[in-house]
Design a protein that fits this description.
Rossmann fold, 5-stranded parallel β-sheet
Amino acid sequence: MNYLLDVNILVAWGWMDHVDHERTAYWIREKRNICDLKLFTSSIPEIGFVRVSVQRAMGRVTLSQAAKVLRGMLQSLGKSHQFLPDNLDGCYWPSWCTSATRTTDAHLTELAQMHGLQLATLDANIPLALVLPPINTKS
């Protein structure tokens, strides 16, 4: 299975002070090492990363700095990263999307499914999405 990375995955991975950084970095490392597995981003998660990064830093990170961090993250994925153009109509919502706060989740889930991908997220409330598992510390 290939994955479309949600905004919260990118934010957690990109910033070491994020509560889910270790969990997310571990999952991405594991997936990156699987031959032929692809981790996709699209415009919404990338723009979301920049927006959230600037907001959470309360102005200490500029748009260009956040974009530079994102660029470095995606480059570190090498051939396992692929950009997914978003050609999905913005007027269709699955039946589970009943409020404005769920529109981005619904759109990304539909975009992922349309391309045979699964949305990877930290949000446990998105139908059909993969919620990153906790790090297994047992040997």
